[in-house]
Amino acid sequence: xxxxxxxxxxxxxxSTDAPSEQALTEIKAKQADEIVTCDxxxxxxxxxxxxxxxxxRYGNVDGRLARLSPLVVTQRVLDxxxxxxxxxxxxxxxQLLPEAETFVTGIGxxxxxxDYKPAPFIxxxxxxxxxxxxxxxxxxxxxxxAKVKIDTDRYIGPEQAAVRVNGEQVGHVTTAExxxxxxxxxxxxxxxxxxxxxxxxxxxxxxTLCNKGAVDMTVDGGASLRVQAGxxxxxxxxxxxxxxxxxxxxxxxxxxxxxxxxxxxxxxxDDHITGVLTEHQAGRFLEMKPAGIRVRGRxxxxxxxxxxxxxxxxxxxxxxxxxxxxxxKISPGIAWPGLRLLMVSTTGEHFAYFVLDDDLKPQAATMPxxxxxxxxxxxENCEPALCTVLFMGGAGGSLRAGxxxxxxxxxxxVQQALTRVTSGGAPVYIWPGGGIxxxxxxxTMPDNAFGYVPTPALVAPIEFTMRRRDYERMGGxxxxxxxxxxxxxxxxxxxxxxxAQPWPLDPLSDGSGxxx
Amino acid sequence: xxxxxxxxxxxxxxxxxxxxxxxxxxxxxxxxxxxxAYRQAVSAFQPVLSELVSELxxxxxxxxxxxxxxxxxxxxxRQMIAACLPYRTGFITPxxxxxxxxxxxxxxxxxxxxxxxxxxxxxxxxxxVWMRAGQVLDCGLVTDLGAPQLxxxxxxxxxxxxxxxxxxxxxxxxxGGRSFSLGIAEAVxxxxxxxxxxxxxxxxxxxxxxxxxxxxxxxxxxxxxxxxSDLGQQLVTISVPRLLPEDVACALxxxxxxxxxLCRSGMILAAVLAFxxxxxxxxxxxxxxxxx
Lengths: 516, 292
Known about the structure:
By secondary structure, chain A is α+β, with helices and mostly antiparallel strands.
């Protein structure tokens, strides 16, 4: 210790943090169920579920006292056959298992912004006989955002419309994808290009979404949304359950063969394209007899109709509650008494079965078993509707200096796949072209992997793994490489590895096109 | 976790931390004097937390509106009660001044017998300061505790006779912590003769910046967040939506009246009230001394 003060010199009076035995006993006696008593210091905060103590360093996480934002370490254990062994029933006592493979994530690593100093953790390990180095850090991302995919056909608002949280614009509606509406949220213009409030609300929105929390938002001229990664979207207060199997026309194409023998006409109600079986190419191919039932809307091609109703939260993303409302006319001379008509939505959630009476009026009838099965099959082929959140950020900036003295070498090495990039241990997609722009599905990352700085900007974990030889070649901070056992284990949180994900330390290609 | 004492990476400032107390300290003067001053601060800091904890139940109780004040052993506890005394006819517990009182105490210990030019003890935004005649100190101003960043700089000089600066306000969404506010202001900064006085006054003014009964302001009983909160069942603010400009002006005016009274009575020297991008200055002291 040098410099003024030498505050670490021992003081004869000392300071002990062990709370008195009596105080501990008393406080534990009056402890309610979900309250945790923190014994990290003499204040003995009693902490409710999900809250923090007075110091903000310790909190009650799932009824357990936890040090917040510790370094997260993941481990996997392989048996002799190279199969992943689950840590069944083993409590995580906070120590690393010697027989397990360990990967240090960037979560809780901290950062050395500005990054002219080496990253907080540069870990050397030997894998399959090759010396590997992982540079572990938390990057501060001023250029970042979230791409959100919302599986729904419901109308959420026009393309380019502003998406707002608490009245502040945090992003916009972007091009719709198959069965999904897409949002582009965040980005440097909302984070730091607008008002202070706009930046803070945007940062808060991104942080909550990336940490798998729920955010309520509204679309200008559109719907109100509740979005949470890995959960069904809630649109105008209604939870979406299924993603449609296809548009109305596609649904007919998929199921026409199965319907032919049981009904005379099927109308698949869809806000995008409503399909009419006997007019549709598929029905004609099956030589079905025209049923003479004309639906409203604008005809696109035979059996395919646009805009049979207004967008809404009723049948197939329309505002329809009574399906017969979309029938414009039933032609005598073509239609016949006893005609069996099935009306169904693209998710199978709405369905009705009718038989035409002698006046050719549709009368609700009991649905035959075979038709019910066909409807059920539509539902069975729909995937559950989810919100998915991809974090996207540029790691090509100053944080590279924490990795190497010559940042461009890191960029090149990543582009040549000599260096593997992970985020909280999860695989990332590197957008080709200049820089290191990464995308990662936040659902594959450990919980609460993200933080923020008041700039405002997001803090995300990022790890660069490469051969020691390649690290040296790129001008890496070799003097700072330390082995895993030098980590202070009282500061880590241990997570089991997610078996579905590639192990970040698996051998890399060596640039020759062959892997070792 | 025991008490931590270390110089920050800049090699100039001393960081002391024990449980919820987190101090950043800086002194100016000859190196040997600074070293001795820091040793004195570390030494004075050692027993602070345990002394406070031993009287915590008493310090968390509301002061009686009339009659004798509670007797305490600790010097810091006595200062806390003294600073809160003027507000005892309303609801106040000595905890309203705990951060400032700790800062004052450590500053006094740091200065005792030392030959320094200036020094401060910053206890999480509640700051005790001292300047020798002719000295100046620039102090950053944060107007949103939910998203702390520098909103301006106060140029302080010795003739202003400021000994304490404290900031109080409602924490933003996602802010943990147990420093609650009954009001809705993002930040109220008070300048006073000492930090404990500034701390108590900032709490009172921040509580006054309010729109009682406004349906969009979310409040919960303090004990639902912290079971041992000194605020008990009182409703504390957890979320304030964007409000209409006239509502913002109205809430600020409520706080302003309280702050103006305190300035006029000489209890405090100046106050800066910040709420939803509006800033209100009370007291003449800061006129021309605030830079964006």
